């Protein structure tokens, strides 16, 4: 039996879809018994959402005010407490939440960590990308290690359905929690566009947009498609778009059904963020841009002419 | 003396096109250009600016690697670091062991903070800083895009999926840096000459009381699956009709 503990990600209101993808990954480990740990404050509703995930055996809820801001230093001792001596695997999503938290958990447990696992070969053997996805390495944890920690590359796994009904147990961790790390504020750019990481359609803009004013052309096209908005690192660095829209090695790794890249040349660091997209559309005036090598549909031309045309054609049904 | 420790990793240069060896035994690194991990360069730049603002007195850099790593440490000294440690190893070091070595150095140097890149661009692990913070039982502020030291605390703005989060941490602490924190300075020729005279000392793993463990084996390496090249469409109308035909819009 492989006892797997998954750390749920949520925003205090709803469960992040990354958790359902972690459950899928965990389900591929042979003989898996899956527990989801929800850490937060007033998160009964989130625990109920987690309990419906197909394949989940039980949900543990650590509900306390200290957990409100989900600081890694505060959560890690609790995750380690519920993992120690109990489980064979601790999984979390490879999002900024999981990337921050899981190595701290691994160190507290003195366990090895595998980052960004993209496929399961056995309970100890996994595939993960290195060098910005330019190579895939098969890694194996030594047979005498009782426990391993991993982050799951969510773009590699589909979300499981909400068709289950697992038991929910409230837990209290006796571990002493530190006060050396304090939440101050969070500034999220509010947007009525869908979430970049889960949207089935994404329109991204690159440096060729030329200004943050011109970047509104991307927003306009996304609006008619009901798509999320993304950006290349070059566009973010140039200040055309905020960093949370960045797609690629140093931004978000996504797997939408449709990805439209506008004015993006297709550097490997960008492509690693979209290689699991079902269909890639590239619009670029440079016919030699590397993105055309990977695009399913390519259109060579001036984006300032093409984008308004596309918007009009798509709005007309 | 207020001191910062900055971790420096020697990696294949950002601009090198990586190739997997035909036999799948690894990534070809013979004769390719090696550099300081770009994120570590940003960590060092931030440490140097903190010293220039008078927040700290000294910036010490440390690397874990082969003797060749002295080249990257000399570059770090040329950028402006005061001293360097090389923890000499002739084998791969797993992140948890790297964290144990950095912890030993942080304690030995009595540092105010350890600054590291958020990840190395070779193994893309993104683990060492967080592990160091856990072993040290100190705060971690990962993915930093703004760092302010204020007496016994640091306020750090972090790049998270939702946007920007600001946290306050008691010092000492571990800070891992993201790309937008700063633009590292260029090294000038006179600084390279000066750096040759700066202290660069070598330690062994045993000197730091750490025994290396091999708990994760790299079984084989493969090139990523290549996407099939698609078709070119002639105009916006053609693109929309293709998208409709494929049921995508």
Low-confidence stretches of chain B: none
Number of domains of chain A: 2
The major pleated sheet of chain A works out as: 7 strands, parallel
Contiguous helical run count of chain A = 9
Number of helices of chain B: 6
- What is the straight-line distance between the termini of chain B? 63 Å
CATH hierarchy: architecture of chain B: 3-Layer(aba) Sandwich
* CATH fold name of the largest domain in chain A: Rossmann fold
Q: The biggest beta sheet of chain B, please?
A: 9 strands, mixed
Strand content of chain A: 25-35%
Name of the level-1 CATH class of the largest domain in chain A:
Alpha Beta
Strands side by side in the biggest sheet of chain B = 9-8-7-10-6-1-4-5-11
The Cα radius of gyration of chain B reads 21 Å
The largest beta-sheet of chain A arranges its strands as: 5-9-4-1-2-3-10
Instruction: Find the structural class of chain B using helix and strand composition.
Output: alpha/beta
For this structure, the CATH topology of chain B is Rossmann fold
Q: Bin the helical content of chain B.
A: 25-40%
Shape of chain A: globular
Shape of chain B: globular
Category from helices, strands and their pairing of chain A: alpha/beta
Verbal overview:
The complex is a heterodimer of chains A (317) and B (249). Chain A is of the alpha/beta class and 317 residues long. Chain A has 2 domains: 169 residues, HUPs (Rossmann fold); 115 residues, TPP-binding domain (Rossmann fold, 3-Layer(aba) Sandwich), CATH 3.40.50.1220. Helix content of chain A is 26%, strand content 28%. In chain A, helix 1 links the parallel strand 1 and strand 2. In chain A, helix 5 packs parallel to helix 9. Chain A is globular, with a radius of gyration of 21 Å. Chain A starts with a strand and ends with a helix. Chain B has a single domain, classed as HUPs (Rossmann fold, 3-Layer(aba) Sandwich). Chain B is 27% helix and 31% strand. Chain B has 6 helices and 13 strands. A 9-stranded mixed sheet of chain B has the order 9-8-7-10-6-1-4-5-11, with helices on both faces. In chain B, strands 2-3 form a two-stranded antiparallel ribbon. In chain B, helix 2 links the parallel strand 4 and strand 5. The mean pLDDT of chain B is 96. At the A-B interface, helix 3, helix 4, strand 5, strand 7 and strand 8 of A face helix 3, helix 4, strand 7, strand 8 and strand 9 of B.
